[in-house]
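ESCALATION

Customer reports they have been waiting on this structure for their group meeting. Please prioritize. Original submission:
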Amino acid sequence: MPGYLEQYGAGEEKRERRLLQIAGGTLGIALLGSILYFSFRDWPLERKIKQFIEAVQHQDYKTAYTFWGCTAEAPCRDYAYDKFLEDWGPKGVNSRAAAAGKLVETERCGSGFIAEVGSGGADDVALWVEQSTRLVGYAPWRECPEKKLRLRKWLRMRFGIG
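Update from on-call: job pushed to the front of the queue and completed.
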């Protein structure tokens, strides 16, 4: 009976290995899913701001004005089309930020999304996109007042990455 105990426990080892593979695969998929979710959850809102900036850069101000939920024919009550042109037109106060067209800082905040547009200088403009309506407007703050972990900002400050 030399081979009687040689195979003892072999099935158990296979089962353990298979359970570890399943657990590792599940954990890997969950981790990858989380990374993808947190990387792309604000993509539609960022895209909305980029489309607005592109319209301003192409001097298509009527289209850009519609991103605010207004039209030249039916202007917003608190933001008339001439005021919009003063702000975003060729000689507007925000024309430098629009010309740079770079999203310097972005941050999810409450029911919306804040994006600082410009080149990283004093002329940058903080814009807000409301999640439910996808309308663009001026952000009430440059940085969200909510207490939250700002890992990307910390990495950039500490190591120059992020």
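Sent to customer with the following note: Strands lie at 102-109, 112-118, 125-130, 136-138.
Escalation resolved.
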